[in-house]
Design a protein that fits this description.
heterodimer, A: 272 residues, mainly alpha, 12 helices, globular, B: 410 residues, alpha/beta, Rossmann fold, Coagulation Factor XIII, Chain A, domain 1, 2 domains, six-stranded mixed β-sheet, 9 helices
Amino acid sequence: MEIIIKPKNKWWQLDLKEIWQFRDLFYFFTWRDLKVKYKQTLIGVLWAVFQPFITMVVFTVFFGKLVQMPSDGISYPIFVYVGLLFWTLFSTGLTNASNIFVNNEKIITKVYFPKLTLLVSSILTNVIDFFIASIILFAMMFWYHYTPNILGLLLLPVLLLMTILSTIGIGLFFSSINVKYRDVRFILPFFIQLLMFLTPVIYPVSLAPEKYRWILGLNPMSGIIDSARAVVFGTGNVDWSLFLVSMISMLVYFIMGYIYFKKTERYFADII
Amino acid sequence: MSQPMIEVKNLGKKYRIGEKEKYLALRDKIAHPIKAIKSLREQKDFWALEDVNFTVEPGEVLGIIGRNGAGKSTLLKILSRITPPTTGEIKMRGRVGSLLEVGTGFHPELTGRENIFLSGSILGMRKKEIEKKFDEIVEFAGIEKFLDTPVKRYSSGMYVRLGFAIAAHLEPEILLIDEVLAVGDAEFQKKCLGKMGDITKNDGRTIIFVSHNMGAIQNLCSKCLYLEDGKIKKIGKTDDIINLYLFKNSDISEVDILQSHHVKGNGDVNITKVSVLDSKKNLNNSFLINEKINFKIKYIVKNISKSISFWIIISDSNGSPLISSFQKDGGVLLDPILGEHELNVTFDEMGLLPGFYSVSFGIFSHEGLVSWEFSDWVDHCLSINITEAFVGGKSYDGRWGKIDRKALWY
């Protein structure tokens, strides 16, 4: 094995071999985050359910009952819960990811390892929360008698993967820029909160005029949440054009985030 | 002949001064774009390392010495790929493990057992490897009873032992070690040095070792590299290099303390100048055996917080301390007053036999007589030469040892 250290690395070199060498780190970082997160808490992993559930109740009362928000004829609680499930994965994933390098400063300045593992692991922690919170969704589907269509069920893992990749891509950008400009941690929560209202979480995509729907798709979460609803409620009417726009924007964000990360990564230890 | 394990060519590292201390705020850049550009231009470049070239052969242990700020840590950080070089190239033929800190990646909330796995995998071990060596690590650290206790409840000694035990069981072909042995108790330090010795002798591993502890360097390293102001001053046999390092100023009897002399300290009180004088109060650093030796310490008090006391250590040419003397032993501490002051310390009969010796000074700040911290510590800043004759004229007879002591014979 030969290691060559030079002033510049090529940003397009994704060193898969190295990440494979350190693959146990994904497990250990995720495991560390989960352990630490739920240590000394009273209800432990139930927190993963608690947050989206309470939000769902509050939104149902205010937007569902009081505002009479349309929901494509689907019961509002389950309608909004599907949205919240994916949205929570994205938003908490992004929030955690953006601080990941700054929070792990001590390791980054003392030892070399693929830093990508840190970020991916932090998102994997949220994926586990996502699965736990999904139990409520299954219970609700049973309660409201919704049967998902089989073909659609195959789409769910794809949607989950798209959410993860969007979070990684955008997270890579913000976490890298956060190393240099610490304003990010003030801007980001605000930005994420605003973004929720620009994403069809509490309202259906059909609320937007058909001509302009693709604009919603620039936010990958729009296509993901809309498709998830179509699949879960068995309607099967996935808006493929919206889905495609979301898919492309996801890829663009992912590549941009990755490039920015790769360009700055090596200097983290100097500026963190 | 086999290829060198490590090849370093024209290595350089440039920092912008201020880059490390200041947090950049995006706000500033947006609000004052012109100011931001201006301040960028005003930043000065600083070469932490410049034109560094060396090679390390397989199985060789290279020691790196130099004053604080000479670039030792920067060099190690580049070799461990934590930070990239600005110029040059490094080739390393083998798996690299670096130990820049004890307990890398430890999480205080997790137990000893959990941290062994976490830290081990961050240092580059596979899960299986850790499982295989788990018992060995626990035994080496001697923490069997506390395996399931969160490390935040560990004593600092236990923490260090566990941290080192994990790192000692890494199996890279190239091992990079920074100053980590400076912590921990003497017995454990010995154990670590022993372990490191075994590693090189039995496994033929290549090690780069940075330390202020000349004794450890002497024990472990066959070759030594002396860094000064980011450049290589000299590479060569360990004995020669340590001598050069300690006795660079062997004929100087008055030294202005530089930033790089300070090893430790909170900075409340700083030593600014030290000198060595003979019995006639003339500057002199060459003495007869048992001749009276005076040291004058100039210091500046910047913050008045606690009472202080001074100490002095005389080390031999390997850097191993031989004689120490503590002002606090007299039971009286100094109450500092802001400004510059002077203090004298005299040895009537030091007893050192011929040779070169280096002198270090330090200041404790006290909280009562029992608890203290370092206010300052200037290492190997002065040297004295003991010539081959006794005071009174008798010539040196080549007797054994380093210290001559009078005793009562009856």
